[in-house]
Write a structure and sequence with these properties.
181 residues, mainly alpha, elongated
Length: 181
């Protein structure tokens, strides 16, 4: 299971790299063409904007997996293991509910988005806004797995610590607890 999650994370990160590189390349080439040759690529602005939308929503899944979203850990740090697990459970239930609502909203909007086309590129807008399926499913799956780990008592200590904002970078890394002593 760990290898599957690691492979899926790696594949998702590679997709983000490709989207970011494509977006940067399109914008750079378009700037050079506009200012250097007084021309441009018509679809560059629109497609780079769509790449940015995908990059943002894919990044949200990876960020949630790594517990790197902005959080208020001030109160959670005061709790012991049991209090942290209760907070983690409540948080993941709320996130799972939001993911279900987000998936449902994307599903309801699907016919509308599928019937509309992008102004310049001409693709169906479901290719743009359909990223909601991926984000909602990815975040919902991660939240469901975490809930399962909490209920069965198999939540790793490092995940609980990360949830509480206790980031340990590891030996040799800046900020490692052994180096701070």
């Amino acid at each position: 299971m760990g290898r599957l999650i690691s492979a899926a994370t790696r594949l998702t990160e590679m997709a983000m790299v490709i989207l970011l590189a494509g977006m940067a390349m399109m914008v750079f080439v378009n700037v050079v063409l506009r200012y250097g040759l007084n021309s441009g690529i018509t679809f560059s602005e629109e497609l780079s904007r769509y790449f940015f939308v995908w990059l943002t929503f894919i990044g949200a899944v990876i960020t949630f997996k790594e517990n790197a979203h902005i959080g208020v850990e001030t109160m959670v740090r005061l709790f012991g293991r049991r209090g942290r697990l209760i907070c983690m459970f409540i948080t993941n239930v709320i996130v799972l509910i939001c993911a279900v609502v987000f998936f449902h909203g994307t599903w309801v909007q699907h016919p509308i988005n599928a019937s509309m086309t992008a102004a310049v590129v001409g693709i169906s807008l479901i290719w743009v806004f359909g990223v909601g399926y991926f984000s909602a499913a990815g975040i919902g799956l991660i939240a469901a797995v975490r809930l399962g780990q909490i209920v069965t008592g198999r939540m790793p200590e490092e995940d609980i610590a990360r949830f509480a904002g206790d980031y340990d970078d590891g030996p040799g890394e800046p900020g490692h607890k052994a180096e701070q002593r």
